């Protein structure tokens, strides 16, 4: 959300960050052989109304969405030091910074500010990841799919903390390929 001066940025849901990366990121689209496929409807994919998107991040251009997705992709599948460094670079490049505002005469609130409108989409997504890491610092829970033909990202929210695939579909596809390979190696048909 932005304030009247348009500088305040709020985190958006991690599911929307994942969708942004998977639907507009160059690597996930190329690995899935979707580089030439049309992009989805922005507001449906990111689960936000068109008015909310425009008021928070400006006009949803494909170029801006691709740039944001490609900037965020390296955060997933990184180890702790690499993630910290990548987040630091994004915080610096977007000039995202905490600030205080007076809600009324007796109360202040923490907000995040990003002065450049072009950086607000990346800033909101980075803020989402930072807030997630604040409550669960396990960076291995922000992963890249282990599927053979997939490079989609995911957030592992499972109790076992063992997720390796972006979806059950990718997991089943990978199991079926492994099964067929094993049968072929043993001469079974």
Automatic annotation (TrEMBL):
Pfam families, sorted: zf-CGNR
SUPFAM superfamilies: Jann2411-like (SSF160904)
Superkingdom, natural source: Bacteria
Residue ranges annotated for the Zinc finger CGNR domain, each copy included: 141-181
PANTHER family per record: BLL6575 PROTEIN
Protein's name according to its UniProt entry: Zinc finger CGNR domain-containing protein
């Amino acid at each position: 959300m932005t304030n009247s001066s348009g500088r305040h940025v709020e985190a958006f849901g991690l599911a929307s960050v994942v969708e942004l990366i998977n639907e507009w990121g160059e690597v996930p689209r190329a690995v899935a052989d979707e580089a030439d496929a049309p992009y989805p409807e922005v507001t449906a994919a990111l689960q936000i109304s068109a008015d909310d998107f425009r008021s928070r991040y400006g006009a949803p251009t494909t170029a801006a969405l691709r740039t944001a997705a490609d900037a965020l992709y390296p955060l997933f599948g990184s180890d702790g030091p690499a993630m910290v460094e990548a987040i630091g670079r994004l915080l610096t490049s977007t000039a995202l910074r905490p600030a205080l505002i007076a809600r009324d005469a007796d109360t202040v609130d923490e907000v995040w500010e990003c002065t450049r409108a072009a950086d607000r989409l990346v800033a909101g997504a980075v803020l989402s990841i930072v807030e997630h890491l604040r409550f669960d610092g396990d960076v291995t829970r922000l992963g890249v799919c282990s599927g053979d033909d997939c490079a989609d990202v995911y957030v592992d929210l499972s109790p076992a903390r063992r997720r390796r695939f972006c979806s059950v579909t990718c997991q089943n596809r990978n199991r079926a390929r492994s099964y067929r390979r094993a049968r072929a190696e043993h001469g079974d048909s």
